[in-house]
Write a structure and sequence with these properties.
The chain is an alpha+beta fold and 185 residues long. It is built from 4 helices and 4 strands, in the order H-E-H-E-H-E-H-E. 32% of the residues lie in helices and 14% in strands. The longest helix has 21 residues. The chain is rod-shaped.
Length: 185
């Protein structure tokens, strides 16, 4: 064979091999991963916690002290505004009962003072009922002279009778009715 024919065959085979190689299916290569910083996952906004419900503000305790004249169970005109204010504050409030506890000074017999303190508590109860407070929810009690608030302040002031005006005046704070609202439990 002539050398030129041989070279022609070699060139043709090379061309055919090149065409085959170009047309031959190549495996699909995955692109190389890019080395970049990893983005954080998207943050989901956390819902703000709802504030805890505020407990109802405790209602202020209601009470009043009403003073009485010596040997009297009628509510004095000067003490009525205390009861009016108390009645206004009570309206619209929830309560179990209203306690009115009567007291007396030490002048006189203990049995008499017990009855007098009971009449004073009943007078306050009736006054508040007249202001619209439900009478069935009020309790009148009597302590007589047992719970004096003057203590020894009026000691040794002379005879213990109504003619001793210095003693009667000193014992004024003992002649009282204490009114207290008893809130529900």
């Amino acid at each position: 064979m002539k050398p030129s024919t041989r070279w022609t065959i070699v060139v043709l085979v090379a061309i055919v091999l090149g065409i085959i190689w170009m047309l031959w299916p190549k495996p699909v290569e995955q692109p190389a991963p890019v080395k970049a910083p990893v983005a954080p996952p998207p943050t989901v906004a956390k819902p703000e916690p709802s504030p805890a419900p505020t407990p109802p503000k405790p209602e202020e305790p209601l009470s009043a002290t009403v003073l009485f004249d010596f040997d009297q169970s009628a509510v004095r005109a000067g003490e009525a505004p205390k009861l009016d204010e108390l009645a206004a504050k009570i309206k619209g409030r929830t309560f179990d009962r209203l306690d009115a506890v009567g007291h007396a000074d030490r002048i006189g017999a203990n049995a008499y003072n017990m009855g007098l303190s009971k009449r004073r508590a009943e007078a306050v109860r009736a006054y508040l009922a007249g202001k619209g407070i439900e009478a069935g929810r009020m309790r009148a009690d009597a302590k007589g002279e047992d719970e004096a608030v003057t203590g020894d302040a009026c000691k040794n002031m002379g005879p213990e009778n109504q003619k001793n005006q210095k003693l009667v005046s000193c014992l004024q704070r003992d002649r009282r009715v204490e009114v207290r609202l008893v809130a529900p439990r």
